[in-house]
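Q: Trace token order:
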Amino acid sequence: MRIRIVDAFTDQPFSGNPAGVVLLDSFPDDAWLQKVAAEVNLSETAFAHPLPAGGEADWALRWLTPTTEVDMCGHATLATAHVLHSTGTASGTVRFSARCGVLTATAEADGTITMDFPTSSLTPVAVPEGLEQALGAEVLSVHDTAAHIGDLVVELHDEHTVRALAPDFAALKSLSSRGVIVTAAAEHPDRGYDFVSRGFFPAVGIDEDPVTGSAHTALAPYWSARLGRDELTGFQGGARTGLVRTRLRGERTLLNGHAVTVIEGDLHA
């Protein structure tokens, strides 16, 4: 069977967020999926198989980190949709059945893909004990997304602080059920983005995720409320970076970006 590595939320190889993509006839046992994800050793590997015609979705989709399965993943969904469209396996809008419900991915005329995800709720919470020490930075506010993606959204003073972070990943591991998303307003919005973020997920085996699509289902409502606009662009990453365009539509958030296949080969297992 074929396996591909796709860089998501970028149109340039070796940038954005890489994801493994494996298209199957059906899902094998969970242990095999986890072994493949561990072998690929990226933040997520997506596994998908076609569903019978006439249902609410066209493909079943699952995402696994090297250590566990996750409920929602944006960049690996984008990567999967890119593979389906670039290989001629699908066209137009693809509907995925996943743990978080039915998601859609639509190929746009400009070569991007727009995904429709549930908007994450944001609950203000007190700064958890040890968070500032783990980040090495003063925290302005913290919002919990436990009902949806299980991340803490943490606003810091400015873009420079976000970019310069060198967190204590072992200390961050126990502070959220999935991850810690740090964010700040863009210092220079004329550069093509409205806010910046970085995502740390040591609790699920990923110290830093370069460009986290699912996190933008929380970042979009957070910054849309602050900036007074429903359409925004987020810049995420440390060593690798990418752009996520967001459009807030109440209970749904649209995520848009490019993707590019960088590796394709055979999986012998």
Summary: The helical segments are 30-40, 75-86, 131-135, 159-164, 169-172, 216-227.
